[in-house]
Amino acid sequence: MKLIWYLFVKMYVRLGFAFYFKKIRVVGLENIPKKKAILFVSNHQNALIDPLLIATLCPRELNFLTRAGVFGNSLIKALLSSVNMLPIYRMGDGLTNLHKNEEIFQKCYKILDEKGTILIFPEGNHNIQRRVRALSKGFTRIVFGALERNPELEIIVLPIGINYSNAKKYASSVSIYFGEPISVNELKEGKEVNAASAELRIKASAAMKKLVTHIENQEDYDQIIKSFKEEDFLYPEKVNKKLRNMKEFVPPSEEINNSFNFLTPIVKINSFLPLLVWKYFYPKIDEEEFIATFKFSIGITAFPFFYLLQGWLIHLLLGINYAISYLLFSFLSVYLFTKSK
Fold first, then answer.
1. What does the alpha-carbon distance between residue 264 and residue 337 come to, in Å, rounded to a whole number?
2. 89 in the same domain as 171
3. Same domain, 222 and 271
4. CA angle 131–129–14, rounded 5-degree value
5. Residue 42 domain-assigned?
6. Quick one: pLDDT at residue 99?
7. Would you say 231 and 218 are in contact if contact means Cβ atoms under 8 Å apart?
């Protein structure tokens, strides 16, 4: 039953992304083994959008390590647990809670021992900047702990790179790169755990830096960003190559688009109530990394609920055929509006 619920949520969220993103580009799905224990490690720019994207695009069922702070109450905890999310506690969650991580690690060892998969964001927190930050050692503890429990187990670490054209913007585009697997067993052979752990962190970081736009130069970060068009960031291999040879930070010429999109007033008028909900929540968002999370959450809840409510009223007044026509028109207009942005 839990698997059915997981697959339902996965399909619903994936459908939601089709209405939210203009384009989703996926590279390297062939690098994901079908029957091996995998620890996925990914960069983390965009709060809950990052794990949701990976989960909906990955062919394997995923378990997620998520910061404990989002497990706010019993209802949210039950909901997140139902889609394989596990809380991980940090110093900010209080010293008294850190011991709870041992139970989570034991669950992770069991998942990997059964040749399952785990997704972790080893940077430790999210940051909207386009770079790979220092990786914590928590993910190495998980894989080597699983190997200590079962030395015969074959485990791989698979790096992921997520690249947004604009992480905060609705109808932006995204590319997800699944990199080449790193064999933990081969890396550990003949080494002490501490040495193997340090080498794994270095290898995973280097692999991730190839899969995302990695801007090491923080002093000129803003100027460097302006030297590219947003769509360029969907192709990190090209951007990183240009960064290595870049000596001047020259903004590209702006393309002025004066074309009128006739869908804009239609969607705005037809979606006035969900848009009011967004305007209410927007000023309350403290971290820019959560802007897209709120937009998407409202998009997959308030918008369809409002359209269904309108459709029900039309059904009562005019009949079922008019209601179905209205619903088809509403969803199709939003879909086309997203793709035409």
1. 7
2. yes
3. no
4. 95
5. yes
6. 77
7. no
pLDDT at 256: 64
Amino acid at 303: F
Query: Do 120 and 64 share a domain, yes or no?
Result: yes
State how many domains the chain has. Answer: 2
pTM over 0.85: yes
- Is 250 a domain residue? no
Domain with 289, as residue range(s), is 263-340
Q: Give per-residue pLDDT as tens, 252-290.
A: 876 666 677 899 999 999 999 999 999 999 999 999 999
The 10s digit of each residue's pLDDT in 130-151 is 999 999 988 999 999 999 999 9
SS3 190: coil
Q: Answer whether 309's CB lies under 8 Å from 271's CB.
A: no
Contact (CB, 8 A) for 338 and 22: yes
Q: For residues 154 and 185, is the Cβ–Cβ distance under 8 A?
A: yes
Q: Residue 64's closest CA among 160, 204, 154, 201?
A: 160
Return the SS3 of 290.
Answer: helix
Residues 267 and 239 in one domain: no
pLDDT on residue 88: 80
CA-CA distance, 42 to 209, in Å (whole number)? 10
Query: Is 318 found in the same domain as 177?
Result: no
Residues 13 and 146 in one domain: yes
What's the burial of 67, exposed, middle or buried (CB within 10 Å: 0-12/13-18/19+)? middle
Tokens of 193: 């755990």
285 and 218 in a common domain:
no
CA angle 90, 95, 97 (to 5 degrees): 70
Q: Rounded CA gap, 205 and 133, in Å?
A: 8
Of 215, 245, 275, which residue is a domain's last? 245
Residue stretches of the chain with pLDDT short of 50: none
Both tokens of 29, joined, read 């799905």
- Same domain, residue pair 125 and 208: yes
Q: What local confidence, expressed as pLDDT, does residue 128 receive?
A: 92
Cβ-proximal residues to 34 (8 Å cutoff; 6+ apart), any chain: 59, 60
- The dihedral through the CA atoms of 278, 281, 283, 286 has a sign that is negative
